[in-house]
Write a structure and sequence with these properties.
The protein has 3 helices and 7 strands, in the order H-H-E-E-H-E-E-E-E-E. By secondary structure, the chain is of the alpha+beta class.
Length: 164
């Protein structure tokens, strides 16, 4: 097999591994939101030790301790249901690092004093990945929101809902 063909196959395998990583994010985050807190721990294990996330109005969090605060306290503390649906990935691999961009649409339920409020989120994930010990992990995630809106009002009326 030619060296060029081996490199092309390796890049394809890397892109597929990154897709699987992102799909695991959706499953693990949603299972954690649904009450299985151990899934948040599994998700945090898929980040590099010095990773960070920036979720706009929800905050920026750095390192494993920051990620734990974000997923368990911010996400788990504010939502009781989530169903991440990601699509349109653009993944660029460069050796042991990569960048990705994804669209997400996610119905959810925000915790409120009277039980919950159905929400819709649309955003773009801009991500950086690093290959550690042969495994792809997140280096960073930056989220840019198109809308975070109450289901009953829609994003045409209130584009960015406050949880306060």
């Amino acid at each position: 097999m030619s060296s060029d063909l081996e490199k092309r196959i390796a890049r394809m395998e890397d892109r597929e591994a990154i897709r699987e990583l992102k799909h695991s994010y959706c499953y693990l985050a949603d299972a954690g939101i649904d009450g299985d807190e151990a899934k948040f721990d599994e998700l945090i294990g898929k980040f590099a030790d010095d990773a960070w996330v920036d979720f706009g109005a929800f905050g920026k969090f750095e390192g494993k301790a920051g990620l734990t605060t974000f997923f368990k306290d911010v996400v788990g503390g504010n939502f009781s249901f989530g169903a991440h649906m990601v699509c349109n990935p653009i993944i660029r691999v460069d050796g042991k690092s990569a960048k990705g961009k994804w669209f997400v649409l996610a119905p959810g339920v925000a915790k409120t004093q009277d039980g919950g409020r159905a929400t819709w989120t649309q955003a773009t994930y801009d991500e950086e990945y690093i290959k550690v010990g042969g495994e792809w992990k997140w280096k960073s995630i930056t989220v840019t929101y198109g809308f975070f809106a109450a289901h009953d009002e829609g994003w045409g009326k209130t584009r960015m809902l406050s949880l306060e």
